[in-house]
From TrEMBL:
Signal peptide (residue range): none
The keyword Iron-sulfur is annotated on this UniProt entry: no
Entry keyword Transcription: yes
GO molecular function: DNA-binding transcription factor activity; sequence-specific DNA binding
Sorted UniProt keywords: DNA-binding, Transcription, Transcription regulation
Pfam families named among the record's database cross-references: HTH_18 (PF12833)
Source organism of the structure: Spirosoma aureum
Designated name of the protein: AraC family transcriptional regulator
InterPro entries per UniProt: Homeodomain-like_sf, HTH_AraC
Entry superkingdom: Bacteria
Residue ranges occupied by any HTH araC/xylS-type domain in the UniProt entry: 183-289
Length: 291
């Protein structure tokens, strides 16, 4: 990135932080973006062929897609075709979360790890979403005193249109205590990620840690999580740690020792053994494969 591009990026980020949102068009000059933890939620409508990396998974598509990015989950894209077109909207959590309704939208499967962040669109769906983005663009530059609220409504409309495309993925009702405690556990687990710095290593690493944080007996937590998800609490924790470990190995220059410490392992050897047991590989081989 040259000095001019760096200045433009800085200005863009400053404007976004001040307003809490930014809507813009994407075009053929885009070169994709690097894998990183973002500061903002993102919704983008894109046409073109490219490879998308989300956490430790990758998607390849050459159809119009709608993408939902969570600032806690790292992602990047590689442009394959020389031309793309579309729209994108970046916004902060505080900008959207002015009501319980808005908060529930951020908890939808569209923004969650393991959910459905990428939806393939047909022509009619693409045109519908594009029209909403165009309205947001027009309002962004207007002097309308309530334009922030209107843009929030447009963002919510896009989310609802996407949820209608994936009806089976809609968030379930919390019908009983087991479901409620499981939901809180999973939210608390996910809230610890991504690991941004070795200065703030993982704090909740065991079922006992989570049970203490939730003020419940560990047996009650374990039975609830197993009843609702079919998987033990320890498996959820281990799977999430492995997912983060892969992301850090593939997309940062941290040493294996740094990653081990950041993920709560007292000794690198413990991390290596844990990783090998869960994946069949050693951390260094995953790092080498990504170079």
């Amino acid at each position: 990135m040259n000095k001019l591009e760096s200045t433009r990026t800085s200005d863009f980020n400053t404007e976004l932080k001040l307003k809490g949102f930014k809507v813009y068009e994407t075009d053929s000059k885009s070169n994709g973006h690097d894998y990183s933890r973002k500061d903002f939620y993102k919704i983008s409508l894109t046409s073109g062929k490219y490879i998308f990396h989300y956490a430790d998974k990758s998607f390849e598509t050459d159809e119009p897609i709608l993408f939902f990015g969570n600032p806690r989950i790292p992602y990047s894209c590689e442009i394959v075709t020389p031309t793309i077109d579309g729209y994108a909207c970046l916004f902060t959590e505080d900008f959207l979360k002015v009501s319980d309704r808005s908060e529930s939208l951020l908890q939808s499967p569209l923004f969650k790890l393991g959910g459905t962040p990428i939806l393939t669109l047909n022509t009619e769906q693409k045109d519908t979403i594009a029209t909403i983005f165009q309205k947001m663009l027009a309002e962004q530059d207007s002097d309308y005193i309530f334009k922030d609220e209107l843009i929030r409504n447009y963002i919510s409309l896009i989310v609802h249109e996407a949820l209608k495309m994936q009806p089976s993925e809609n968030s379930p009702e919390h019908k009983n205590a087991a479901v409620r405690i499981t939901s809180v556990f999973l939210e608390l687990l996910e809230r610890q990620f991504p690991i941004e710095s070795t200065d703030h290593p993982l704090e909740l690493k065991t079922a006992q840690d989570f049970a203490k944080q939730l003020s419940v007996h560990v047996n009650h937590l374990n039975s609830s999580v197993k009843e609702v998800t079919g998987k033990p609490t320890t498996v959820h924790i281990a799977d999430r740690i492995i997912s983060e470990a892969k992301a850090l190995l593939q997309h940062t220059n941290w040493t294996v020792a740094d990653i081990a410490y950041a993920l709560g392992f007292e000794y690198t050897t413990y991390f290596n053994n844990f990783f090998k047991k869960k994946t069949g590989d050693i951390p260094k081989s995953v790092r080498a494969a990504s170079l």
